[in-house]
From TrEMBL, chain A:
Protein's organism: Hyphobacterium marinum
Protein name: SGNH/GDSL hydrolase family protein
UniProtKB/TrEMBL annotation, chain B:
Organism annotation: Hyphobacterium marinum
Protein family per UniProt: Belongs to the membrane-bound acyltransferase family.
UniProt pathway: Glycan biosynthesis; alginate biosynthesis
Protein's cellular compartments: Cell membrane
Keyword Acetylation annotated: no
Transmembrane stretches, start-end: 6-23, 30-47, 53-70, 77-95, 115-133, 312-338, 358-377, 408-431, 452-471
Protein name: Probable alginate O-acetylase AlgI
Assigned keywords, A-Z: Acyltransferase, Alginate biosynthesis, Cell membrane, Membrane, Transferase, Transmembrane, Transmembrane helix
Membrane topology (UniProt): Multi-pass membrane protein
Pfam families (UniProt xref): MBOAT
Main location: membrane
Amino acid sequence: MRRYALTLAGAAAGFLLLFGSFTFLVDPYDVTGWVTIDGVNERKTRAHEDGYRVRVGHRLLDTEAGTIVLGSSRVADGFPREMPDWPGGYENLGMAGTSAFELARASVIGSRNENLRCVIIGMDLREFGTYPRAHATYWITPLTGMPPLFSHVQTSLSPNAFARAAQTVIDNATGGSDEKWENAYAPELLPGRFEEEIEKRYRGYSDYVYDPARVRFLFRGIDALLAQGVQVTVFVHPVHAWQEEAARRVGMEPYEDALRRDITAEIAARVPSEAREPCFDGPALQAWDFGGYQDVSLSAPPDPSGDPENPYYYVPAHYRPVLGEAILTRMRGQEQEPPFDTASFGRHLTADAVDTLMAEAEERRQAWLVDDEWAHYVTDRFDALDADPPAPEREARHYLNRDDFRQLERDVARAERQAGP
Amino acid sequence: MLFNSFEFLFVFLPATLLVYYLLRHWVAHHAALVALTIASLIFYSWWDIRYLPLLLGSIVINHLLGLVIANHRTQPWLAIGIIANLASIGLFKYADFFVGNVNSVAGTAIPEPHFTLPLAISFFTFQQISFLVDVARKHAKPGSLTGHALFVSFFPQLIAGPIVRHDQIAPQYDDAKRKDDLAENIGVGLSIFAIGLAKKVLLADNMEPFAASAFGAAARGDELGLLEAWTGALAYSFQIFFDFSGYSDMAIGLGRMFGYRLPINFNAPYRAVSVIDFWRRWHITLSRFLRDYLYIPLGGGRNGLVRRMINVAIVMLLGGLWHGAAWTFVVWGGLHGLGLAWCHMLNRFFPNGLFSKARWLSIGITFLFVTIAWVFFRAESFDAAWRVLAGMAGLNGVGNSVGDEPFIAIVIGLAIVWGLPDTVSIFRNVLDRMTLETARVEFQKGWRWSPGPWTATGLAFLLFLAIVNAWTTAEFIYYNF
């Protein structure tokens, strides 16, 4: 029996040690940077594969920046990586493919960082659909609430991280890389990707279901930040009109309306105390709407040659950092050059304004549909899809479960207790 | 702290084992028990330290009551003790339920107190009641305060059972002279723990999304098609079994690592041939508690069939309510009560079962009944339960495709519960009388554990796989009860 017990415990420990130390040393998500060996792990070719969650989880806890931007790949790609002149420091903490669940958890974790004074959160319907509540790698990040040390252990013992580590070593040894990812925004590919997104979004949105519980969930997470005196600014992304049109053509307009109403209802239900050091004028919790067929999102697609590029968008779903910077400038109330100076670019989203905003967006849409040559082109494409609809992208629907709410509630209540009355 | 969390696996458990055995070897048995008690209290406080005083208060008060009952007289102290225990669980667990129902019936608007449910209150309260009754019946002696504290708080079984009776565990704590076979304790305990962790992490947690998807859709008012409803209900049947029996296996394995024997809690319940048989195999320690401390005091089956049915109904309705403060749990218990009554009646006319020549049919029908009853257990409201049941009845048609994954998961689940032996059968050769005595165990055929190098390597790999997949650290379902 002695030999059996030793073999069992020793083999289990050995498996874990070999597996974990390989991943830890390779550091595929570029978090620790402890060991760098040329030809082995010097190039972190797969650091993006977790959508930056592992890095974001750690940065939320230890960033010294006073302002962070959270959100999906629209934030990760669409906001500047650095803004040296931003008062108190700025950091882009976007996570590709994020969800309301992850954003709520990120808010709770961020509330533990005393340096934070402003959090900006980008959102649209994607975060509130019945998609899986979290990316697979979310669970190995500090976003779950575990201490950073455990997070390193858990990341090291994750099959996903191990696979990325192995791929990183192979890439370094063979000179390979994730070319598809690296070239995703290559100018010559963008016209094709603009084109592809018409059908892709149409199919993707055809089976979309809006889950209002996720709005409640996210704002409960935001309460942890508010309790610490952090100013929270949420905003609806300025996706390109082609994407907005795809959503409307498959009947998602009521969801757009519902999302805005639910956001404003959540804000109206709160009376947060004043922010410690606000970045923007106005209350500690506020919302902006940058969506809805404004001048920027009506811009023409890139020329088929790739030159000229669309100056504001890579693809309909993903905008360029120049637009992210303009969003921040708009929030700060500073004057901007055209086309960001128009009244339609960024409006305060309040309960009283929802009807007006939606009506104005519809007006602009109607005008666009009549006047714009690209609108005619897109309309023809959507008409063809309506006539012969492609199979929708059906996925199992996921809803937040009771444990999700319980854990969040426990963590937020703890943050509120720590903040005191 | 969850058994599948990294802080438990890599810090708490190794440290506690080390301290326990060092103290036992170099200091004294009693010192080791004190250390184990402190570790258990830390384990409990990790969740929410605000409820530690409640646990400590429960330990001290019940120990004092036990001393009074043992040394002076039973009444009124036993009644006071039972009422005090029921009052504490009533206050924390059922106050909202009670006030909500009063408001509904009387049209009042009494505010609900919204107490947070202290972790494990349902389990440790039952253990305390069983302790007081056993002391009054002279089946147990109060012993020392440390022994009592460990009886209640021993971390492997504190949160979700097995519900341990004082006379099962106290003699083990009191046995200062027994010698530890460290290799056997760790070898057997870690092997059982590995299987339990694998059940939880590799099976239950992978069933959860399919169940949550269907029940979540029902909760928000969607109509469920036949496929979605059945895959959701079946996935939940497997999720709750692998989750809870996995937890129980881990508890038994952990207890064994310290040299203590905890009673088994599951024995292949989805192989039950009737509802009666199901409750002999599912949450065995709860069934025993309800039988010994409620059903038999009510009269049991002594006063005729009708009275027996009434007693069964009372026990199951209260058993349902014990699981959660909602009428859906009561209905779940009521359904099982009806099932038990029906089976008792059938037994009078068909002592060998209705399908004695086709055992598989009895197993299938029982599994079907249990799965349907789980719908009320899982659903967040009656509306949601009816939507799932309507979907299962095909009232909404076949519905949308749910993809291949739920079907694959269900086939794997069925293959395991019907094709492989449960943990108790696998380890029958090394489980002791104490562990097995709670169940009238009918062992399944198949693989038996034996301490060989391939078994050690295979289980080590299973443990490794379970640990590296323990990302989600989803809570155990019974943590909520």
